[in-house]
Amino acid sequence: MSNPVIKVENLSKKYILKHKNSEPYTALRDVISNKVKTIANSKSQILNPKSEEFWALNDVSFEIKQGDRVGIIGRNGAGKSTLLKILSRIVTPTKGRITIEGRVASLLEVGTGFHQELSGRENIFLNGSILGMNKNEIKKKFDEIVDFSGVEKFLDTPVKRYSSGMYVRLAFSIAAHLEPDILIVDEVLAVGDADFQKKCLGKMKDVSGQGRTVLFVSHNIAAVQNLCDKGIYLKQGKVQMIGNVEAVLSSYLKASSEIQQIDLADRKDRSGNGIIHFVSVEVKNENNIPMKSLQCGKFGKIRINFNRKNNMPLNNVHFAFGINDEYGQRIAQFNNEITNQLFSDLRVDTIDIIINKVPFRQGIYSFVLFATVNNEIADWIQDAGTFEVEAGDFYNTGKLPPDGQGNIFIEHSFQLIQP
Ligand SMILES: Nc1ncnc2c1ncn2[C@@H]1O[C@H](COP(=O)(O)OP(=O)(O)O)[C@@H](O)[C@H]1O
Ligand SMILES: [Mg+2]
Asked: Quick one: which atom of ligand 1 is closest to the CA of 80?
């Protein structure tokens, strides 16, 4: 079970970047140099002085064991897709080598892996045979593939006429159902709708549960965390960190400063007797992974870190977190007095505000932090900071009110009353 099924050794990929120049003189020289290249018809590179070497991957080494679910993360341009393309043998490495045991099915950027002129049906058979399956084996899986993809009506249409959504549905379905030993999925899933994405993540979980290996690139941190047990963090073509997925994600989020952590420890614009001293505020998801923002309609957590003077246990502690819109109008408040949760014998220095369904429209909101102990103001910071809310489908209908119709969403329904 624990042999490496993928071994990557000192893998590097070089691209030559040509700098476009709008001067006609240079354009002409480009044309000539290209002609020379063609005439020379050799692999020796005649480098345009305006071109530059670029290492998309630089000395990357790692091993993946059978059944590993590996999330590959990193900023745009880090080399994630290049790595997946090399592993799928669509791109050849410049240096180093890869060893792969087993059949690989991949879902890469839209446009790879499918034959444009062939129909959906024909592409299912084509992909199956590329994976080394015979006709009967493919036939057995055919209905499942079509069913999962939901493109039944378009099975005999050439895939070049598919929308990108249909394309991804079918491509994913083929890759996931043809029993590959290794399933490689790049960010393309982002093209599909939220329900389909969920279905795909479930399917990838099933696939990995059968002892198959999954490599997954996504910007959706929660999805990576949910699916993967191992993480590889790429930075500018190099492996920055490899290991347990939680640790790798934390390190990535910290480094990419995508975390919303607001430092309050040294703020001077505060009042109160100092029995409580706010230190920082963070936004987290349900698994305590730090997030850049809250998402409308989703679960969210706001974590407040503070110090207690002399570490004393505190009684009758009241926190308030006031939220202002872009015009400075108070639109809501989190407050443990209203929720009847006044704290007594408080001995912790961290408290979470739990929001089951974030009700705010996308945007940037500012907040006020306030704490009293025994009815005396302990700490109070007026303009404590801002937090961001990302757009989300609050009502799960694919619809949200138009702009100018309020920043807060309220769950409701309509009822007809018979006369
Ligand atoms: N065919 C190519 N020619 C030149 N540069 C490329 C090519 N493919 C990718 N790159 C460059 O390589 C780097 C890594 O790209 P990519 O692997 O797509 O990153 P990621 O998927 O992590 O966003 C980027 O800077 C990208 O512009
Ligand atoms: Mg990419």
From this structure: 22
